[in-house]
Specification:
single chain, mainly alpha, 72% helix, 0% strand, elongated
Length: 88
């Protein structure tokens, strides 16, 4: 589910780079959040505990998608105007 959530922005904008970053971040976030959810459910938590545990995967998917976009960002610099000092 995390990979699908992460890929939607890139697919909507038709950007292979954003799709890749979203897939990566969403997959890792879904894995970590799912492990947290599984631990809480296996501990025998009541319904309110399970509902609260659903927030963990959502937060981890969102955070890791954003982190993947920042970490894997490519920077480009284009000089439009200005002078270039002469080197010796």
């Amino acid at each position: 589910m995390g990979a699908g959530i992460g890929a939607t922005e890139g697919l909507y904008e038709r950007s292979p780079r954003k799709t890749r970053n979203g897939l990566l971040g969403g997959s890792i976030g879904g894995l970590l959040g799912g492990m947290l959810f599984d631990r809480i459910v296996q501990s025998g938590a009541q319904m309110s505990g399970r509902a609260t545990a659903l927030v963990g995967p959502g937060i981890s998917i969102g955070v890791l998608i954003g982190l993947a976009h920042v970490v894997l960002k490519e920077a480009w610099l284009t000089v439009l105007d200005g002078y270039r000092p002469e080197g010796n």
